[in-house]
């Protein structure tokens, strides 16, 4: 289903993942110009791409970027039990498989590749860069889930009980937690839109899902030093869902030599679409400026790939000459 929206071509498609599940994908491509670069969006827990991330994708497409998104298994319009994450590794691998397939399309091979991850999607993006550090040109990390805030995390005793229970009743919705929508999005009308969106999961977190999110954030926090991709991390000072202190820790301990951190006073967790318009414009100005600066520098990843290819050709030639 393709349609034009304000000089942006929007399209949807379903693909099959390695486990035979049907996953929903969508894209926003600027018309009348060659895209500056590719951006792959990774949505947050219980969210989806085509509705909640639509305004984000449109802003970036109008700024000249080609945007591609995918609803995770159990999220949005994709197959699977709604709100259920059996393995975070599956989510990460599904994203790598699909996003890589888009990058390898002939017209995209010369374009720079950026990841944009929000909340849980920030953790997904960071894990993608850990698995393929030389494949991505940069990451925009919006309130990344490097650690779940104490405000919404079950107590240690409850965590221990829930961890044992998830082996028996993994899909049950019994994790006690605050309403994330109320603490994540500042603007009341946005909360109402999310609650009215049938593709957003509104129930209590399922046992295995909560276990996987917690396990993933603990592992990621321990391995922040492995992050080497260029990145900008953006966090609201009043975020009560993910820990801004760990975003600062990411800046301090990561191996990346090109990294930035933006902390926004009085802003909440949902920086991309949950704040008043004037705040959203500040956030997107920072994002597009960061992307434009790096895109204008030229594609060092392509240069590295070409250098390796030339070295391989040279070695092959030497072997042929010797034989």
UniProtKB/TrEMBL annotation:
A family per Pfam: Hydrolase_4
Transmembrane segments: none
Superkingdom, taxonomy of origin: Eukaryota
Every Serine aminopeptidase S33 domain range: 33-272
Annotated InterPro entries: AB_hydrolase_1, AB_hydrolase_fold, Hydrolase_4, MAG_DAG_Lipase
Alphabetic keyword roster: Hydrolase
GO MF terms held by the record: hydrolase activity
UniProt-recorded name of the protein: Hydrolase family protein
Origin species: Tripterygium wilfordii (Thunder God vine)
Lineage: Eukaryota, Viridiplantae, Streptophyta, Embryophyta, Tracheophyta
């Amino acid at each position: 289903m393709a349609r034009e929206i304000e000089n942006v071509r929007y399209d949807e498609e379903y693909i099959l993942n390695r486990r035979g599940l049907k996953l929903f994908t969508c894209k926003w491509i600027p018309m009348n110009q060659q895209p500056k670069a590719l951006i792959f969006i990774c949505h947050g827990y219980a969210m989806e791409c085509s509705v909640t991330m639509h305004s984000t994708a449109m802003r970036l497409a109008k700024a000249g970027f080609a945007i591609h998104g995918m609803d995770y298994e159990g999220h949005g319009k994709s197959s699977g039990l709604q709100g259920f994450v059996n393995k975070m590794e599956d989510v990460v691998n599904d994203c790598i498989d699909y996003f890589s397939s888009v990058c390898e399309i002939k017209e995209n091979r010369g374009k720079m590749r950026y990841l944009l991850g929000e909340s849980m999607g920030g953790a997904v993006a960071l894990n993608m860069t850990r698995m393929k550090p030389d494949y991505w040109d940069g990451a925009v990390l919006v309130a990344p889930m490097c650690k779940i805030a104490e405000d919404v995390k079950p107590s240690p005793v409850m965590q221990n009980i829930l961890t044992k229970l998830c082996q028996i009743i993994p899909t049950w919705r019994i994790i006690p937690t605050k309403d994330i929508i109320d603490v994540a999005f500042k603007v009341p009308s946005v909360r109402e839109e999310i609650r009215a969106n049938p593709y957003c999961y509104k129930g209590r977190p399922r046992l295995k899902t909560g276990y996987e999110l917690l396990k993933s954030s603990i592992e990621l926090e321990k391995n922040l030093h492995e992050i080497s991709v260029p990145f900008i991390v953006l966090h609201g000072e009043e975020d009560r869902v993910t820990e801004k202190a760990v975003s600062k820790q990411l800046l301090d301990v990561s191996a990346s030599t090109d990294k930035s951190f933006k902390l926004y006073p009085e802003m909440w967790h949902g920086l991309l679409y949950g704040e008043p318009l004037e705040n959203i414009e500040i956030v997107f100005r920072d994002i597009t400026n960061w992307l434009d600066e790096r895109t204008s520098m030229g594609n060092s990843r392509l240069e590295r790939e070409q250098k390796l290819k030339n070295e391989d050709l040279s070695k092959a030639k030497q072997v042929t000459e010797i034989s």
